[in-house]
Design goal:
about 375 residues, mainly beta, 5-stranded antiparallel β-sheet
Amino acid sequence: MKRIRAIAVAASTLALVAAAAAWNRPPSNGMVSGPVDAKSFGAMTFGPSNVLFVADNDADAVYALEIGDAAKPGAHIDMAGIDSKIAQALGTTADQIAIADMAVHPVSHNVYVTVTRGKGADAKPVLVRVTSDAAQPISVVSLDNIKHSLTKIDNAPAATGGARDPHRSTITDLAFVDGNLWIAGLSNEQFSSAFRRVAFPFTSAKEATTTLQIYHVSHRRSETQAPVMTFAPTKINGTLYMLAAYTCTPIVAFPATDLKNGQAVTGRTVAELGAGNQPADIISYTVAGKGYVLVANRTHPMMKLSSDEIGGAPALTTPDVVGVARTNVSAPGAVVQLADFDDQNVVVIQKGASGGFDLKTVAKSSF
């Protein structure tokens, strides 16, 4: 009987160990639950399912956060005074916050905004959710216990003195394509302008880095130091391009297949949108079977370009040539944030009549 009891106890113990192992199995996408102690929040993009990638430039890192919004109809979101209302939700005033980026959840169509609250040493990163729910249109996403993972940038540009040079941004924009997170910014390579690519879920493997060269029409020279400010993965005639917008304001096409690890690649400058300007966002979309690219600008109007024309455009290699035709679709500098909302609409943050900023959903067919 003792032998039988011993066998039974052993079997019971093995069952408990197996149950515990099953209970403690690693969560999906390699994420763990716990607090996120980010130093800063900047560019962001949604990836598979409920995963939001957010850049932390001060830490030379990207967080993957699980944002479990419930599916619901994609109701339009329109909110006047978005900056003041976010500030109110954070217990401060509009002059004490800075909006860094905006992204739309692919399932719920809630709008997420990265915000810095405060200035200088007191500045804190915040992630804000904006919804069409009148009862709670704005809420702060708690980072105290959230599923997340992290990838560090291995070849970040060096800090200058005790603080990072604000012009040497490790991460300027993010996009997710075919299982990979694409990261634009600067590196510590000889050609410091770079695209990085890292597979998700994140592992210990290093990111692939391609350094970039472009011909800058306004500057009348080839450049390897200027960072991509914003970019959009875009398929044109079956070829995947990274369409990149730079300050002052060349639009450059990079075939994704050319962007291999350790390579230095020269992009094809296809348009010059004008000097004295910084691009805010770029997206690609389709209306009535035709592809377009939309570029929001800090100083110039928001502009629409034809994807087909970009696909066949020759490289610009001399000054004072504007390249692919463009159509102005906003007042100069009116749109400061732009994101794809759904198949028919985009969402923008634009300057309002009262001097603040408004969030609006706009039909793509209206451009």
